[in-house]
């Protein structure tokens, strides 16, 4: 119904064709549609922003994976009980006068003791770091683990340590009786280095106590010390085409030696030694001024470059056991007797 009003000063009557209550309802509908439109715009903006972020993330991953390798190519065993990275910036470590990295010990506990003695090692002022492969090949793998723990040594996981840990984890979870027949392969999925129950690492694993296992399995794949020239201790190496530590592939970090056309390889002489490539690319990486200390490559022996320090000098093969002071780069070595002929085992 129309609403009429009169101007008292004239004879003209004004007609408001829309009643007051209907006008209010129309305004409400208008504001409702405005709110819906704003909500739609907000949703569109969120979708666009998320799309941009995802695209940039994927580009970053592609840039960091120039070697074409990925974790899916090198799956981790369900029995690995693995810590990938430990970053240690503790004040107590920074205050140590000497921080020593030791190359592959491989069960040579007597030689480790001789090296520690030659260093005049004092746990109160010094820190020892073992660059992986505490175990296998040598005479007393369990002895090395226990001595390392007594010394308060830090450690990283070597490829042989990884095998021992996986076998021990399986035994603890499934029982020793599950490790038969000896010709059977331990069920770990599509790992790059499947293990049979007749593998010689089994005997080492079975001799570990829970404390031994806890210590060895606590060794991360990478030990990062930002306060010390952004130092990283690993066993095998780091992929020069991957700039972020968290994107490195654990299997390759423990096993790499060379870089070939397809990326990092556990093999020798199939390409260029990874440290050579790393030093060439160092200035282009986001992890600038990084020093890497590693073992694993006894065939090349002592391998010192500007930013990479290879310290596996083949003690178990009758050569030397080497320690390097990470602060001063001063090396200390002791001679070792021959325990295993180099190249004498198929499981390197």
TrEMBL record:
The keyword Phosphoprotein does not apply. GO terms for molecular function: endopolyphosphatase activity; phosphatase activity. Keywords: Membrane, Transmembrane, Transmembrane helix. The chain crosses the membrane at residues 33-54. InterPro entries: Ap4A_hydrolase, Calcineurin-like_PHP, Metallo-depent_PP-like. Residues 99-300 form the Calcineurin-like phosphoesterase domain. The keyword Transmembrane applies. GO terms for biological process: polyphosphate catabolic process. GO terms for cellular component: cytoplasm. Pfam families: Metallophos. CDD domains: MPP_PPP_family. This is Metallo-dependent phosphatase-like protein. The lineage of its organism: Eukaryota, Fungi, Fungi incertae sedis, Mucoromycota, Mucoromycotina.
């Amino acid at each position: 119904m129309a609403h009429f009003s009169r101007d008292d000063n004239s004879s003209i009557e004004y007609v408001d064709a829309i009643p007051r209550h209907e006008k209010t309802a129309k305004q409400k509908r208008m504001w409702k549609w405005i709110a819906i439109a704003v909500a739609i715009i907000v949703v569109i903006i969120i979708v666009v922003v998320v799309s941009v972020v995802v695209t940039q993330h994927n580009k970053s991953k592609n840039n960091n994976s120039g070697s074409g390798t990925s974790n899916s190519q090198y799956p981790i065993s369900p029995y690995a009980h693995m810590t990938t990275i430990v970053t240690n910036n503790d004040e107590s470590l920074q205050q140590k006068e000497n921080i020593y990295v030791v190359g592959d010990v491989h069960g040579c506990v007597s030689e480790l003791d001789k090296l520690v003695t030659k260093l005049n090692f004092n746990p109160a002022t010094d820190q020892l770091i073992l660059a992986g492969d505490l175990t296998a090949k040598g005479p007393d793998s369990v002895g090395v683990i226990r001595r390392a723990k007594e010394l308060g040594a830090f450690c990283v996981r070597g490829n042989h340590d990884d095998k021992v840990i996986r076998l021990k984890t399986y035994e603890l979870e499934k029982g020793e009786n599950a490790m038969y027949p000896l010709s059977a392969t331990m069920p770990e999925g599509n790992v790059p280095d499947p293990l049979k129950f007749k593998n010689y690492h089994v005997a080492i694993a079975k001799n570990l106590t829970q404390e031994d296992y806890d210590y060895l399995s606590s060794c991360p794949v990478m030990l990062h010390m930002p306060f010390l020239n952004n130092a990283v201790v690993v066993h095998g190496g780091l992929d020069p085409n991957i700039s972020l530590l968290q994107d490195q592939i654990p299997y390759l970090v423990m096993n790499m030696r060379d870089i070939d056309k397809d990326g990092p390889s556990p093999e020798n002489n199939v390409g260029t030694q990874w440290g050579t490539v790393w030093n060439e690319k160092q200035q282009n990486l986001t992890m600038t001024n990084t020093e890497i200390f590693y073992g694993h490559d006894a065939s090349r022996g002592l391998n010192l470059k500007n930013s990479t320090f290879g310290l596996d000098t083949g003690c178990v093969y009758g050569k030397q056991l080497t320690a390097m002071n990470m602060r001063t780069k001063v090396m200390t070595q002791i001679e070792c007797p021959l325990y295993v002929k180099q190249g004498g085992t198929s499981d390197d």
